[in-house]
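Q: Could you predict the 3D structure of DUF6817 domain-containing protein?
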Amino acid sequence: MPVPPAACDQAIALLRELGAAKIAHPGGTLLAHLQRVQEQLAVWGARPALQLAGLCHAFYGTDGFPTALMSLERRAELAAAIGAEAEAIVYLYASCDRKATYPSLADADASFRDRFTGRARNPEPQHRRDFAELSAANELDLARIDPSFSEKWGAELLALFTRFRPLLSQPAWSACHAVLASDPPPQDCAGRRRADLP
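A: Sure. Here are the predicted structure tokens for DUF6817 domain-containing protein:
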């Protein structure tokens, strides 16, 4: 389902206003990266709220990209532009203490540490799936755009997304394997790739 054009236009206008089109990022600018992430999520069939979160995922900075476009005190402003559900995904993504959270995110009793508050919580399954899907779209964009990034981090990212596999959609997992693995996915006896089977 596509994002309503008005919501996408409003988000892009806010990103431009806050300088995302002028911030350097692998593959050009931060705005270009954010648009590619949103487009990837759309290709995978993500719902509109997750696509909008992909477009806006760097608003508060992240554990891996500290440049914030907006302070946390302005969360209501972003929610007004993209909707409360999408903003909550943006906050979840931005707040992740990756070192503490990544090892067990796919576990049912996963502890998610908020780097802004220092608190740990157990996100509901849909939130963990959203986080994993957005993480995959983000990292795969970087791996596709920057061969040195892929060379340095590809194996580690493949291991991460293999752990996240229970949370990822089939299209996201297939893309992770296609971009990050040096070998093709296993095939069944008929020669079909297992990643393509239901």
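Q: Anything worth pointing out?
A: The CA atoms of residues 1 and 46 lie 7 Å apart.
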